[in-house]
Amino acid sequence: MMTAEQQLLAAMIDHTLLKPEAVPAQIATLCDEAREYTFASVCVHPCNIYAAADRLRGSRVNVCTVIGFPLGANATETKVFEAELAVKQGAMEVDMVINIGALKAGDHLIVERDIAAVVNAAIKRGAITKVIIETALLTDDEKIAICKLVTKAGAEFIKTSTGFSTSGATVADVQLMKANIGKGVKIKASGGIRDLAFAQELIAAGAERLGTSSGVALVQAIVTGGMQATGQAAGGSY
Amino acid sequence: MMTAEQQLLAAMIDHTLLKPEAVPAQIATLCDEAREYTFASVCVHPCNIYAAADRLRGSRVNVCTVIGFPLGANATETKVFEAELAVKQGAMEVDMVINIGALKAGDHLIVERDIAAVVNAAIKRGAITKVIIETALLTDDEKIAICKLVTKAGAEFIKTSTGFSTSGATVADVQLMKANIGKGVKIKASGGIRDLAFAQELIAAGAERLGTSSGVALVQAIVTGGMQATGQAAGGSY
């Protein structure tokens, strides 16, 4: 049913529902959409992992969850506990929030150890970690510093935003991250990604995964003329 | 230095700093202010408990922290782990967020067990639990239902808001909670409490604790004419 272009975009999308008031029926719909479009994952809160894993059984869609979300100011031990439990319950991807205050205070060792502890807990059970740096709250110098720390900690992804702060992903931030992360680290852009042109700009800038609750609309937009609308930004970006 | 009226207000205030980007120096200042004014507690994130407990040693100020904050959509096991660790590290009060989606879905048993698990973990080590219901996201029927569940779960306090949702405490919500909680449960109002008149209205409505980052200004306002400015609302409210 989907074109090759649609499939390529869908495979980059973490189909996301993180409203705290979401009910089980909405999680089920999210999972069914993810299965239909073969999104990379559904991104849900830890309390919904069991239900999502169950609903997605037999599909190629991963369950992704969030750790220490959305403020990241938990104890490292709690982040590790939450990540281990999540992976045990069926999550294959964990998106953790860094200790933002420690980064701002220049306590880089605390920040790196916090990340590495979660990365190691996830890896043990074959799960990958995405490290949310919450760009909205950081200076460019802090963004550059955290790119190095995420790389050193061995995380698979660095991720722009929680979607719960003052702003979300920007092309400039993705470019800055691309220039400062190590070779093995990928970029997930998230927060405020609601139209195809913007999604394609983020991809062109280096994002390999998009966190969005608008995945269905984005994929459908490719057929309904979205590609034309985006002009050159779409050319060869994925 | 403080008048009796100031002391009474100060003893009701959880002096709060929950910005994820707060640095250790700001936590230290928060603690020093809490010691100076003898606030009920400082309310800080789990990653700051050690520092706050250390800074407040020898004072009458409690360390309060937040659990499953601010979305409450964690696994119950994680909330329990986070609460136990927090109390072990020096927190005497834990403010936990309920599972909002479960409440909205009518899964009352899940909601009650989630609360009770944290309450029991805290009680074991002599700490009290405040249950944040996030009024901004609830209908009046849901607010009434959660009042019963918080009462059944044996929590010491019910608390209006995280301060991270679409709105904070209202007088109407405090009144509604007062009418629907059991005798043993107290009310903490929080979120958007920045002037004395409003603080006094909340107290008059039944709040026995206020969560605010404006505690110093509120207490000082009593001397600088705040009492007059608030008119009748101030009369006999505490």
Overall description:
With 238 residues, chain A is of the alpha/beta class. Chain A has an 8-stranded parallel beta barrel with strand order 1-2-3-4-5-6-7-8, surrounded by 6 helices. The model of chain A is unreliable at 226-238 (pLDDT under 50). Chain A has helices at residues 4-10, 24-37, 49-55, 76-89, 100-104, 108-124, 140-153, 171-180, 196-205, 215-230; strands at 13-16, 41-44, 62-67, 93-97, 128-132, 157-159, 186-190, 207-212. In chain A, helix 1 (4-10) packs across helix 10 (215-230). The A-B interface holds A 18, 20-25, 45-49, 69-78, 81-82, 85-86, 89, 97, 99-102, 104-105, 107, 134, 137, 164 and B 18, 20-25, 45-49, 69-78, 81-82, 85-86, 89, 97, 99-102, 104-105, 107, 134, 137, 164.
